[in-house]
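WARN no homologs supplied; continuing
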Amino acid sequence: MSWNDKNDNKNGLDERGFTLSLEGRSVPGVYWTPSDGASERLVLLGHGGTTHKKVDYIEQMAAMLAARGISCMAIDGPGHGERATRDITQHPDAFAEVWDEGGGTPAMLADWRAALDFIEQQEGVRPTGWWGLSMGTMMGLPVTATDERIRVALLGLMGTWGPNADDLIRLAPEVSCPVRFLMQWDDEIVPRDTCIELFGTLGSKKKTLHANPGAHQAVPQFEIRGSVDYLDKYLR
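OK structure emitted
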């Protein structure tokens, strides 16, 4: 487990890459800190399907959170980004196969735990939250349910559906931290009723459902900004 050689500074962020070797898997990650060095809290950012750890909206979230003095960390999910073995943007039906080939939920959980362990060892322990939609919730709900270090979570665009639906259903009652859950009422990918069902299954006593009209990728910007406020509040 080590930092990569190259460090970047842009958009008010210092960016460092790292690579973990875990159970025969190479797991690439990125860590962002505010350029002024103030970093009292940490948020894990889970990217969506067919994207990667440095997709535009993930970098946007990192910049918005850094403006609040919050550091961020992301890794490529199974079969995505630098870990991709095929172009699933051209073959979306292969998504479930890619997830399973990457080791499924157990391997994904081990990857995120190892990444958080590495950041804590290098940078110190801080109040930690999760932000992730769609596949970011496929990863984030299990992480939030099983890692007591996660104090608050922004989840959504996912239901009791997809390649790890059974894991989501099983683990949702174990989520006990505050959760804000986003869904798109006209989602053409994840069935609406499955999103509502997953939200209802979450064990948290502090949870809110935010539903907006529009397709899967049409989450309003006010919800994105609101999610920053939400994480900022609960990580103080």
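The chain has seven helices and nine strands.
OK
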